[in-house]
Amino acid sequence: MIKMDQYVEHIQKHAVRFINAADLEPLIKDASHAQYVLLGEASHGTSEFYTTRAEITKKLIEEHGFSFVAVEGDWPACFEVNRYIKGHTPEYTNAEAVLHSFNRWPAWMWANEEVAHLVDWLRAFNENQKTADKLVGFYGLDVYSLWESMEAIIHYLEKTKSPDVEKAKQVFECFEPFHRQAEQYGISAAFYGESCIQEIMGLLQTIHQNKHSYGGDLESALNMQVNALVASNAEAYYHAMVTNGNESWNIRDRHMVEALDYIGHYYGKEAKGIIWEHNTHIGDARATDMANDGTVNVGQLTREKYGQENVYAIGFGTHHGNVIAAQKWGDAAEVMTVPKAEKESWEDLVHQAGPYNKYILFTEENQHVFRDTLGHRAIGVVYHPEREQLGNYVPSRLSERYNAFIHIEKTKALSPFTF
């Protein structure tokens, strides 16, 4: 293992200082050759992670022909954003209005000023396109929206007077006794054998068989298929959630890759996508201690599915600052202090190499230098800064986990909308 002071020297040699988006051009050019660019974040509540990803996203779309953005968000709410940026939502007057579609906790992840600026840009970009096939899309990859996805399916089937609507209503009725409480459903399914698996699988099969009949609306077949996929995989996720945390994680990340595949097929073979998710999802699990627990993630699965050369993962980190998070699940969000990085963590060493923003491209020349296992900070929607050293650092081989790493020296909290 390399000595700590040698790490600092290597970082100084290979890192590139940046001040604005223009300085990231070499990184963006390097990433642009991939089919999928995975943009991470070390927290769900840091403004600079969002704004930097947004600038990279704009460049990839405008200059390198990327077709869509897919995020760690619910499909139904993201699909409303997708409709908005494509000019199909007279009911929304502005980006903030459509982002209020994100009303499930933690809404701040997507209903915030930083995302609103990107949504405005995407809508303006689409307005300048001459043909529909050039319109950029915005989609959600997550698995949590079981009830919302079921409602979306029923609403569409009713609107189109489809004979499949009765089957969809029967599935919805199966879930109704649990009052939208996922944990109640999970306990009932896991311990009492009261599950809706047969009903949901039957609906998924029906929608798949009849997908060509779902026409007339924007991307109707895609919308129906992914909502049905969400409902099916959410059932499995909540079932596993109360008995096997690792398996529920795997179900969720496999679902995200499956949903991504649906979107990719919709846009065609030449399509290229940009994925926004936490570092713990986009950084290859095999380069962390996740592999010891038998867990996989989007970074690993996409590399395996599409080929290492077709996936470009960019991790993010910070040395200190502020963040939006909550003290426990379901609590109100608050601004919290992110303490200085733990000694001998990746963030600490990058800081020691110079207290400024920088990025590192991992190449054949330098990969071996950053291959040792060191702690890499990860902050979730629930965060306790005072206990950070006990569980907020993921042992990581940085150059195997990512293709590039962006360090923001001092960060500030995200700017969420109030509801």
Automatic annotation (TrEMBL):
A Pfam family of the record is: Erythro_esteras
Keyword Zinc on entry: no
Q: Which GO terms describe its molecular function?
A: methyltransferase activity
Coiled-coil stretches are none
**Gene Ontology biological process terms from the UniProt entry:** methylation; response to antibiotic
CDD domains this protein is in?
Ere-like (cd14728)
Cross-referenced InterPro entries = Emycin_Estase (IPR007815), Hydrolase/PRTase-associated (IPR052036), UCP036794_erythomycin (IPR014622)
Please provide the record's keywords in A-Z order. Answer: Methyltransferase, Transferase
Name this protein carries in UniProt: Protein-L-isoaspartate O-methyltransferase
